[in-house]
Amino acid sequence: MKIESKFQKKKPVLSFEIFPPKRDKAIQNIDETLAILSELNPDFISVTFGAGGSHTNNQTVELAKRIKHQYGIDPLVHLTCLNHSKFEICELLEELKDAEIDSILALRGDANPAVEAKKDFRYASDLVKFIRQYGDFSISGACYPECHTESKNKVEDIAHLKEKVDSGVQHLISQLFFDNNAFYSFQEHIQIAGMHVPVEAGIMPVINKAQIERMVTLCGASLPEKFSRVMHKYEDNKDALFDAGMAYAINQIVDLLAHDVDGIHIYTMNNPIVAKRICDGIKNLI
């Protein structure tokens, strides 16, 4: 079933994100994670695109095939375009067709100094238009509740998102955030802008100090006082920080569900314990 159709049948939708294992590890090593995630009955699992813009060595499609055909769960395949030509994208789309995978998260991708960017696609909206012309795929997109780090302001960011939705995006997944009010404000802004597609709230449980510092640098998420206070109190106690991070994420999700969000997308970091702990905490709510 295509991703956007799931929101017509069920609300809220629950999904997870995983990433392909590193090249020096066999893809079979992720089976333990997938086995546990499948028991949690997600509506779909998204698979990130391999780092570095590599096409030949990318394991994303192989992992998506495993999710679909071995575990019986619909995969959502991330597809970045900044470092790919139209020919390479066509090859990937054909590979997805052959695997009977029809849901794509269309992304620009981050610039990689080690890989020269191609000229065929400049923005995610360019990729969306290309996929729309190429075949009958379900296309999802990313959104930023607190503004993309490269946008000048929120007005410009919403305008770019509107272009992406108008190009053919049928479902949005948000970047991680720690302030639910920022997400609710974002929901109002996209409604005013005329975007009426389901939006999943992206939640990443913080379980170590290095993780939060890295992610905030990359995505620009703000840190509410409550969150900062909890993290600072337990930052030197690994076990306590894990419990505090999980509790914060669960409380976020409870509040989001009370506000009738379209769905919850959990960034699992390939850690099935994280996903299971959260699902146990909200099992009677979703």
From TrEMBL:
<dbReference type="GO" id="GO:0106312">
    <property type="term" value="F:methylenetetrahydrofolate reductase (NADH) activity"/>
</dbReference>
<keyword id="KW-0520">NAD</keyword>
<protein>
    <recommendedName>
        <fullName>Methylenetetrahydrofolate reductase</fullName>
        <ecNumber>1.5.1.54</ecNumber>
    </recommendedName>
</protein>
<comment type="similarity">
    <text>Belongs to the methylenetetrahydrofolate reductase family.</text>
</comment>
<keyword id="KW-0274">FAD</keyword>
<dbReference type="InterPro" id="IPR004620">
    <property type="entry name" value="MTHF_reductase_bac"/>
</dbReference>
<comment type="pathway">
    <text>Amino-acid biosynthesis; L-methionine biosynthesis via de novo pathway.</text>
</comment>
<dbReference type="GO" id="GO:0005829">
    <property type="term" value="C:cytosol"/>
</dbReference>
<dbReference type="InterPro" id="IPR029041">
    <property type="entry name" value="FAD-linked_oxidoreductase-like"/>
</dbReference>
<keyword id="KW-0486">Methionine biosynthesis</keyword>
<comment type="pathway">
    <text>One-carbon metabolism; tetrahydrofolate interconversion.</text>
</comment>
<dbReference type="GO" id="GO:0035999">
    <property type="term" value="P:tetrahydrofolate interconversion"/>
</dbReference>
<keyword id="KW-0560">Oxidoreductase</keyword>
<dbReference type="Pfam" id="PF02219">
    <property type="entry name" value="MTHFR"/>
</dbReference>
<dbReference type="GO" id="GO:0009086">
    <property type="term" value="P:methionine biosynthetic process"/>
</dbReference>
<keyword id="KW-0285">Flavoprotein</keyword>
<dbReference type="InterPro" id="IPR003171">
    <property type="entry name" value="Mehydrof_redctse-like"/>
</dbReference>
<dbReference type="GO" id="GO:0071949">
    <property type="term" value="F:FAD binding"/>
</dbReference>
<keyword id="KW-0028">Amino-acid biosynthesis</keyword>
